Amino acid sequence: MKKNLMSLAVAASVAGVAASTQAAMYLNPEGTGQVLLYPYFNAENSNETSIHIVNTQANTKAVKVRILEYINSQEVLDFNLYLSPYDHFSFTIFQNPNGGGGALVTRDNSCTVPQLGTAIDSGDATLDGYVTEDGAKIQPFLPFQYQNQKDVLNFIGRTMTGHVEVIEMGVLDDQTTTFTPEAWALHDTDGVPASCAKLIAAWSPTDGTWGKTGGTPDAAITAPTGGLYGLSNQLNSTDAAAYGIEAAAIEEFWDVDTSKTPDAGDHTKPGSLLPSLGSGDKDSIVPNNGVAYSLTSTDSWDAVSSLFMQDWVYNDVMVNPLVGGMTDWVITFPTKREYVNGTTARAPFAEIYALKAATKYAVAGLACEDVTIKQWNREESTPAGGSPVFSPQPITTVKKNEICLETNTIAVGSDTSALGVSMQATGTEYYPGKSLSFITGETEGWMRMGFQETSQTYDVTSSSGNGLGIDGLPAMGFAAYKYVNGDRTYGFVSDHKGMVSGSALQ
Fold first, then answer.
1. Residue-level pLDDT at 22
2. Which helix (H) or strand (E) holds 458?
3. 68, 81, 271, 497: which has the fewest C-beta neighbours closer than 10 Å?
4. pTM for this one?
5. Per-residue model confidence (pLDDT) at position 249
6. How far apart are CA 232 and CA 90, in angstroms?
7. Which pLDDT score, from 0 to 100, does residue 261 have?
8. CA-based nearest residue to 36, from 74, 67, 82, 69
9. Inter-CA distances, 325 with 172, 343, 489, 495, Å
10. Backbone torsions φ then ψ of 304, nearest 5 degrees
């Protein structure tokens, strides 16, 4: 569902409008930007997901890395990352060897604050980071944010699936000879930064230039310049199926702030919930039907949402038993938490997340959204008896399809997931998805999912007028396919294709 699927003409139009306005975010069809959104990670059932963050520019960057769980995108780990010129930072998300949740492991030398592999002294040893004898740094994911909110879905397995945000906070630029974070982050010929310890000390709350009371977090920081790209790979070590997934890249995310000299982004301390997707520009560029529309939203959350709005989502389905075919659809709502985690829902979402009562698995509390689904086989026929429906079915006279999570894994035509996630409620845990069951068992073809409830729209100001709307929901994702041929298993992904509509795009 990334806009790199648009035509070259539209891509050129987007880039041209962005260049002329100098401050309007857009999904970069070239795959680089100031913000990267990875739609999925999975550490369940022998799965591991490697995340790659690449700096393609000749400057040193301060970057916020934020890992979010699947139910309603509560943060389970964040850290500051300092990338030297042309740096490549990678880590793997897997099951915590000492506990039931997710964790990351890396052997990368790039500086992070806090340093990965560090104990947190929480009283729970399973949540402490550590360094193995061979130098691997392991950092478990943390349940504290959703625990602090009294969420009844309080289980460590919640950290096993979700998505990842990467936000560039600025460029390190040494202005003096005494405070030189750019020099500290630079790698030598052996690939080792000059001094990660000094970068960590700069965030000291007692005497750090960035971190002390009255300190200056933007000292030696200039404006973000983009040039980040990202990709991820999911590998299941049991069946050797592998899936490569690209990150969506938002360019021109940051507004120009002329009050700062030099103009900076938002360099924040480790552990801060800022910067977020709500910290950027309010202006966006959205392509539709060969035209790039310039929009102004209420805030940056809406601007980011406008980039991912989808009225319809399309992709293939392949569940042919002759080749052991399996298909999962992943639907991630990267901004949903801002719209549903308050006392009232905000358009385009309809329901608040409200699982803070004694009753678990109350569907109304999961901030569910109605969707419509239609399938065609390879000969343009639809299933007899109507459209497919999710199973298990609710006890109701009207059968509706709903997707309720912020990162949804949907097994198509089976109760077994191609991506290897658990698909049912068991004990005290609510797993990441519902299986989708076809009425007639069509084995190959394509499917369409629609977000077309009356609430699934929101207002923007367009270059063509005021008080106009964009329809649908802000969604990203892909379909994952698995095939079995003898003793070999193959996996690949296809980004969702989408259609966006609304009165603002006319």
1. 53
2. strand 457-462
3. 271
4. 0.91
5. 98
6. 9
7. 45
8. 67
9. 49, 43, 10, 18
10. -65, -45
Could you give the CA distance from residue 43 to residue 432 in angstroms, rounded to a whole number? 12
How is residue 5 annotated by DSSP? G
Q: Which two tokens stand for residue 69?
A: 């769980």
Q: Are 110 and 81 in contact (CB under 8 A)?
A: yes
Looking at residue 395, what is its pLDDT? 41
What is the β-pairing status of strands 47-55 and 35-42?
A: unpaired
Instruction: Report pLDDT for 397.
Output: 40
How far is CA 356 from each of CA 76, 337, 346, 365, 426, rounded to the nearest angstrom?
A: 19, 15, 19, 8, 19
Tokens 């000879």, residue located:
177
Burial of 249 (0-12, 13-18, 19+ CB in 10 A): buried
Both tokens of 491, joined, read 């996996």
Count Cα atoms within 13 angstroms, Cβ side, for 328.
Answer: 28
Q: Can you read off the two tokens belonging to residue 194?
A: 């000059």
Output the pLDDT for position 63. 98
- CA angle (350 as vertex; 70, 78 as ends), nearest 5: 30
Determine the Cα–Cα distance for residues 319 and 322; give it in Å rounded to an integer: 9
User: Could you tell me where the DSSP H helices lie in 95-170?
Assistant: 144-148
Instruction: Kindly state the DSSP code that residue 133 receives in the 8-state scheme.
Output: T
Residue with tokens 């690949």: 492
Q: List the chain residues with pLDDT less than 70.
A: 1-22, 256-265, 356-364, 381-400, 423-441, 463-467
